[in-house]
Amino acid sequence: KKRKREIIMILNDQENGFSATAPTPPPQSKQKQRRKAAIICLSTTLFLILLLALLGFILGVTVFRLREPRTQLVSASLEGVSPKLSFPVMKIELNITLNLTLLVQNRNHASFKGGLGRSVLLYQGNEVGEAELNPGLIPATGTATVCSNLTLEVHRFADSGLASLIRDVMAGQIAMESKTRIPGRVNLLGIFKKHVVTSSDCQFVVGLPDLKIKSQDCKYHNKL
Fold first, then answer.
1. Is the CB of residue 195 less than 8 Å from the CB of residue 117?
2. Where are the domains of the chain?
3. What distance separates the 2 farthest-apart alpha carbons in the chain?
4. 121: Cβ–Cβ under 8 A, 6 or more apart, which residues?
């Protein structure tokens, strides 16, 4: 009987227009919800864009910042001596071939592919020899040893003053300067490629007669 009464009451409620479903929210409330969701979505997107921009800036000034490759003269050894006699004016020239070993350090977090380089040797501002540096690939944050033959024109030393040359030889050391230029390309992740020309100016002292590098001070430059 109790069950029948409940059924009768439900039927009466339906006949009188009552429903058990939840009331439908007004249209104005739906618009507010949509607007709130759009604002949240837009704010999240802007935050992610700013975060990516900040991350790119930090990587650009730290990891991906272009650093100049450094070249350093490690050693020099005597390869050969070649006298030269010229006519009709009697003139004797003496060329000495030195085997140079240079260390090239790539400080970038990307590989550096160097092209054909050139190194010039100066004594008191006068060019006394030059050498070509072979192309090569240096891995990211790695080093490579470059060997090259340099022809030293001894008679050009006299252009700077014979007395100065004799004084240096007697002292057992010669102060010289080298200018090295290496064109190349930095390759980042195989996607970003940047052409760069690295150059170095080094002041160094060579001991005699062992030809060992006693001291060295270098300055480096980059040209993009």
1. no
2. 30-62, 70-223
3. 143
4. 127, 128, 129, 130, 131, 150, 152, 176, 177, 178
The pTM assigned to this predicted structure is: 0.58
pLDDT per residue, tens digit, the chain (224 aa), is 555 565 555 555 555 554 545 455 556 677 777 788 888 888 888 888 888 888 776 666 565 667 767 777 777 666 655 555 555 554 555 566 777 777 888 877 778 888 888 888 888 888 888 888 888 888 877 888 777 777 777 777 666 666 777 788 788 888 888 888 888 887 776 666 778 888 888 888 888 777 777 888 888 777 76
Closest C-alpha to 121, from 103, 144, 98: 98
CB 168 within 8 A of CB 37: no
The structure tokens 């004797």 sit at 92
- The 10 Å Cβ neighbour count of residue 115 is 14
The class that CATH gives domain 70-223 is mainly beta
CA 74/CA 59 separation, integer angstroms: 33
Written as six digits, the tokens of 157 are 């030393």
